[in-house]
Fold this sequence. Notes:
This protein starts with 7 loop residues before the first helix and ends with a strand. It is about 35% helix and about 20% strand. Helix 21 packs antiparallel against helix 22 (about 720-725). Strands 10, 11, 12, 13, 14, 15 and 18 form a seven-stranded mixed sheet that branches. Strands 2-1-26-27 form a four-stranded parallel sheet, covered by helices on one side. It has a four-stranded antiparallel sheet with strand order 6-5-9-19. The protein is of the alpha+beta class and about 800 residues long. A hairpin with a 6-residue loop joins strand 13 (about 300-310) and strand 14 (about 315-325). Bound molecules: zinc ion (2 copies). One zinc ion binds near residues 162, 163, 177 and 183.
Amino acid sequence: MPEKPYDHNQIELKWHDRWENADFYKAEEHSSKPKFYVLEMLPYPSGTLHIGHIRNYSIGDALARYKWMRGFNVLHPMGWDAFGLPAENAAIANQVPPREWTLRNIAAMKKTHRRFGFSYDWDREVSTCEPEYYRWNQWFFLEMLKRGLAYRKRALVNWCPQCFTVLANEQVVDGCCWRHDDTPVEQRALEQWFLRITAYADQLLADMAQLEEGWPERVLTMQRNWIGRSEGAEIDFRLADTDQPIRVFTTRVDTIYGATCIILAPEHPLNQQLLNAEGKARAKAMVDARANRDPGDIEKEGFFSGHYAVNPFSGEKAPIWIANFVLMGYGTGAIMAVPAHDERDFEFCRKYGIAVRPVIRPVDGKLAAEPGMQEAFSEYGIVENSGQWSGLLSEEARRRMAACAKEHGFGEPAITFRIKDWGISRQRYWGTPIPVIHCPKCGVVPVPEDQLPVILPERIEITGEGRSPLENVPEFVNVKCPQCGGPARRETDTMDTFIDSSWYFYRYCDPHNSRMPFDPAKIAYWFEIDQYIGGVEHAILHLIYSRFFTKMMRDVGLIRNDEPVRRMFTQGMVILEGAKMSKNKGNVVAADMLAERYGADTARMFVLFAAPPEKEVDWRWEGADGIYRFLGRVYRFATRNLGSAGGSGESDRNVLRKLHQTVRKITEDFETRWHFNTCIASIMELVNVLYAEEAGISAAAMPEILEKLALLLAPFAPYLAQQIWEELRREGPVFREPWPGFDSELAKEDEAEIVVQVNGKLRARICAAFGTPKEELEARALADEKVKAMLDGKQVVKVIVVPDKLVNLVVK
Ligand SMILES: [Zn+2]
Ligand SMILES: [Zn+2]
């Protein structure tokens, strides 16, 4: 047959149209096959898919197709993380209602998904802004309220005094309002809702043991740090004037004789009593200045409160300071500063001339001399100058001193976590309404379950001013109290959108259920997720919140699994010709443009080929051109050899060996390392061999070669694979064919490649039959021209031979 040119648009659009209404990718509800749930993180509907999305989806798509070919019942769904601030910003900027903007973007992005031919079961599509989805956010919230896992307390929000509005954290830039970059953001206290994630802190930490095998170590480390468990003690100092206790948390009670001051967080409740008006104003200014900054980045500042506290161990009086680096959310909001043995305390006390007193010496050294101390000694050692405790090792002193505090009623051993309860109230419009009602008589009343969902009103003016846009919608706000029937106000805050993404992957298993969030039996079948794929930037928030939700749902009795995700994969970023892509720079590579210019197959294959999936990929136009040419080579080879008379057959052995080696390599890779880049490279090598040996391939061998080539391409370039499949006169979708097997005998090399090293450096390769004796390998290595040149004038002192593999010559 004459060869055909590769016309990507003609091929891809043909199959796109034929596949449009076919349901190849439906997951089966009941199946005797083993199940495989593969999931990519759902996108925010910004309007366009870019090359970073394509990489994420191409990895998942290759895996889903491979698993189908291996006979699994595959669940591969997609949805939209559809609530969030950008829709509101668009509403202010362009006068488009957030819902309309969002739905329009979803439609556009879905079109691109389909153009790329990703293998999603669209019947299971979930969009988090739809009432049939978010009603279950509300239902979960009420369940948590019943169990004491949701509660209300006053907490600080960002407030712009120019906009008269609450700002989301993303709207605070370097401590200032995003619209007024000269206006520092203030912190205001509002009543807000929290989820008690800290109740699960221990479990979140302990269950990581189940994730060791399938999750990247980097993600687990980030989660461990975020949870931040520390063992220590809570100790009561006493106010010198009133005897009132001030509880401090410390991980190093063994250093308490070195505590030279007590430091309170600027928002510590005791400040109201201790500070005069000027002090209170200074404390408030500290809280404001800290808005959304990493406490580690802030210059440490503090001031003396004018009061003293008594150390319960030494009986000594220590001054009480207020400082910006002490946080209310960690421990008790009060610390004892031990400058000699803590770097941060050292820096602070030196700055303000507070005494430094060493009380721990290194096990094999001397106690530091105070005036000469250049830095804190923060390790464990031997306790000194500490009354009856002197001479103990730090570890033992920690244990015994905490027990002593407990016995005498001025403290106890304690564990503290860095993780804080999850504040979910947002003073925003485009989110899930929090289902509670405030009644002047009954207080906070949950919306009765049969009144769910609380629907987000649609016609609404968004001005970017005031506390929450919903406050200006009387028909939403004014309600009857479900308990007493009197006039009451509906809660106008909405939920953090991270709630939406905390359980969406459960909904995919039963997306149309109107009676429950999902049928537990379906979860029991599909969960855990076998492979989750997404960016490492979600390592702490999304991937911790969804683990928390799983544990909560298990305790509610809906599911049995402790963890949602068995294996997690974090793919690397895509950059453009060496530079980071960003909307601001205007260098984001849009997926639609790529499909038009190169076709979906080339774009997918490039992002899989250019780097291992966990590493950064640099999008290079000439690299994409190279993939395009390669696919053209494949197609021309296939079409001109279809039904051809065939060649001599003398290359059959060689070509079949290469073919079976390629199948073996790709199969092993899918099962283990996912180095799709080397998989694609091995297909390229195979195609090079096919071109080189084309005249020697017999008509008998050619059909197997073309067929397996199409099957190997199916996970990476499904359109072209399908086209070749059709040219082979084969029926049905290629990605529903069984994955090709390989014959280990056929794949075996006749000869081994022996590496020859001189002083450990690779200098030559020689070929020898398997099992060639050591002496012969040595002789052949010494006879090699390149090696001879290296040995010129030198003496071989030692020869190491590993049969079938290597000869190393040690020379002087
Ligand atoms: Zn502002
Ligand atoms: Zn009431």
